[in-house]
Amino acid sequence: MWLFRSASQDSETPRSSAQPDSRASSSELEKLRGYHDLAKDALERAYRKDVEGSIAEAIKLYRLGLSIIYEGLSITVQATGLGAAFHKVAAWRGDMNNWQQHVLERVRDLETMPADSPTVRAPQRITLQRAYSHSPRLQSSAVPPQSHGVASAGRTGAAGSGVIAKEEARLREVIEGEVLDRRPSIRWKDIAGLAGAKQALQEMVILPAQRADLFQGLRAPARGLLLYGPPGNGKTMLAKALASEARATFFNISASSLTSKWHGEAEKLVRMLFKVAAEMQPAIIFIDEIDSILSERSAGEHEASRRLKTQFLVEFDGVANGSERMVVVGATNRPQELDDAVRRRLVKRIYISMPDAGTRRALLQHLLSGQPSRLSKADVERIVAATNNYSGSDLAALCREAAIIPIRDLGPAVSCVPAESIRPMDVGDFEVALRSIRPSVSREQLAAFADWTAQYGTLS
């Protein structure tokens, strides 16, 4: 789009110029590039709303772009090891400084001029041309959307709007068909333990929905939550239970949900996802394995991946700065791989740790309910003590293995023995099962989670 065409578009950054000893500089370069692209996307969307006459939406997006610009300009990039790539730093920073000045002027005009002012109605003819008049390239390429004439608009408008409507209908069908889970059936009582995580979710989503008058200003709830920890401990179940308890529409996102072989399709799906969620609020957008979608930006990543991250961060900022009743919840086993811009937006970061003895006891009782067994309370305690460092999924696998042993002991006779004649499970079956079902999470992994939690997270 002509309005925010950047000086840095004239050449591409050499993506592999950084040497191994300059990885930090290369990382900062990519962060600056990411913020540059985020700001450009937000300001282009703001301009489109401005031209359409949606002044409130335009101001909101202009201010979002400004906040992204401020963050981008705060990044310091060292020249060490970057070589020819370093010249892009000045170009990107120059773009953002230029945009900042012009957007501040436009926001000031929009907020101070009367609603019936022609400047507000037609920014491309008055304010924006004046604001960019000292930039020859931008001015020469400026072609206002309405300047092509009534006849041209009459010939192409209906056909163009029809194509856009069909495209939106197709994207909406994809979101509603593959992503939307309208009625998650899991409740808090179905999840053993995790009292701290449940309390945080209660304060963040459910209570604000019940008492909106109390959760305002500094008490306004965060819109981003990260559930992280070893696999198999109930992160996805927690998100679904949250949607059930809050009576919210649940959008279950994974990398495959937003992957497409078509150029630009992923960004459109992200935009439609947030649009549909806003229409169906209260809504929870749950991103499983969020590190696979929003990992740290790097010099070697594919252009499509970078555009997807850019679009997601822009939409995410729209949720954080708006009044919609929407929450973005991410789950990951690799929090250290998340991009720092994503980590900052996920304000609440809760560690879903390995189940303690009380939680393992409750899980065992739940798994064994309805299953014939000769386990005493002492036997259950022995199993609880023997399963330290077992995750919830490890315990489930252990119980399944123990439950199959009485059938395995029958040998060939299993084909003709009545079901009621199969002996109940006993503690010996668990002793055998413990030899084959081992913990799936190593001590080194747990230590890495502990280090990350000490730096960024919150214990549940």
What does this structure look like?
Residues 221-356 form the AAA+ ATPase domain. It comes from Coccomyxa viridis. GO terms for molecular function: ATP binding; ATP hydrolysis activity; microtubule severing ATPase activity. Belongs to the AAA ATPase family. With 460 residues, the protein is of the alpha/beta class. It has three domains: 1-145, Phosphotransferase system, lactose/cellobiose-type IIA subunit (Methane Monooxygenase Hydroxylase, Chain G, domain 1, Up-down Bundle); 166-353, P-loop containing nucleotide triphosphate hydrolases (Rossmann fold); 357-444, Helicase, Ruva Protein, domain 3, CATH 1.10.8. The chain has helices at residues 23-52, 55-73, 87-112, 118-121, 127-131, 136-140, 150-178, 195-210, 235-245, 265-279, 303-320, 340-345, 357-368, 377-386, 392-408, 427-436, 443-456, and strands spanning 180-181, 224-228, 249-253, 283-288, 326-332, 348-351, 458-459. It has a seven-stranded mixed sheet, with helices on both faces. Helix 11 (303-320) links the parallel strand 4 (283-288) and strand 5 (326-332). Helix 13 (357-368) crosses helix 14 (377-386), helix 14 (377-386) packs parallel to helix 16 (427-436) and helix 15 (392-408) packs across helix 16. Residues 10-21 and 119-160 have low confidence and may be disordered.
